[in-house]
Write a structure and sequence with these properties.
Blueprint (H helix, E strand, L loop, with lengths): L11 H31 L10 H22 L9 H107 L3 H4 L1 H7 L10 H14 L6 E2 L6 H9 L3 E3 L6 E4 L5
Antiparallel strand pairs: 1-3, 2-3
């Protein structure tokens, strides 16, 4: 736009003549105004009534303004000067001023466009960053969803395996209870408590036992509980409640064994080893 505006030559000579001519015209108009003011001084002034001087003065002021307005409406614009050289010089000066104003506007617009381009670049960069962030979050969400599904499936399998194990343990407990019941019946039938088998001797000797002798079933339960509860220390002390014939039975048949260093302690044979 700046290139399309041609440089307007500065005609200083014409401008000086125009200035001089305008000053002369202004001087002439000023003299006319002086003459009018002199004539107005000799005119008879209207006396304002004392009762409402302020209102009367306002009315007169309004009339004067109305007359001046009507006078201006009747007048036509007057040329500053009719000299073509002066008008050309003034026109060139005005065009140069317009050209300078347009160049200032152009510079401001170009600067604003540059700032807008920089803002646009920043907005595009921010958009790309947000887009990458959304893509990353979407991938993370998809991966998390897959992991949750895998964990859910694994949890279902674990739950099913847990129920199966629980069912097997329950079956083993039932089977163990049956075995213990059968063992108890077998021991009661073939290995009665010591008091019953030794009742005749007690009657003959007329002596009461000092301690209560344990039946074979109680001795086996003590050995089993100790072996299962504390496998690192499976030995139990042998006291007077262990009937010697039952101890000899367990040792001879390889069901139990004495401590290699302390014969007053024994343990259940490690059948699983």
């Amino acid at each position: 736009m700046a290139e399309s505006l041609q440089e307007i030559p500065d005609d200083s000579v014409y401008y000086a003549d125009a200035k001089e001519e305008i000053l002369d015209e202004c001087e002439t108009v000023w003299k006319q105004m002086k003459e009018c003011q002199s004539k107005l001084k000799f005119l008879e002034t209207e006396t304002l009534p004392k009762s409402n001087a302020k209102f009367s003065l306002s009315i007169m002021h309004m009339k004067a303004l109305t007359a001046e307005y009507n006078q201006w409406q009747k007048r036509s614009p007057e040329m500053i000067s009719t000299n073509p050289d002066i008008l050309l010089s003034l026109g060139k000066k005005e065009l140069q001023k317009v050209k300078d104003d347009l160049e200032s506007v152009l510079s401001a617009v170009q600067l604003k466009n540059k700032n807008l381009e920089e803002d646009l670049k920043r907005e595009q960069q921010w958009y790309e960053e947000q887009k990458q962030l959304i893509d990353t979050l979407s991938r993370t969400q998809e991966e998390t969803k897959n992991q949750v599904e895998q964990v859910s499936n694994k949890s279902s399998l674990n739950t099913r395996a847990f129920h199966e194990q629980k069912k097997k343990i329950l079956q083993l407990k039932i089977y163990k209870k049956k075995l213990l019941t059968v063992l108890e019946e077998f021991l009661e039938e073939h290995f009665p408590p010591p008091e019953k088998s030794g009742s005749a001797e007690k009657k003959n000797s007329q002596e009461e036992p000092v301690v209560q002798l344990k039946p074979l079933q109680d001795i086996l339960e003590i050995l089993i509980d100790k072996s299962v509860g504390t496998p690192h220390e499976p030995y139990v002390p042998i006291d007077d409640s262990f009937w010697p014939p039952y101890l000899e039975l367990l040792l001879r048949h390889g069901i139990a064994q004495r401590h290699p260093e302390n014969p007053d302690r024994m343990r259940l044979e490690a059948f699983h080893g």
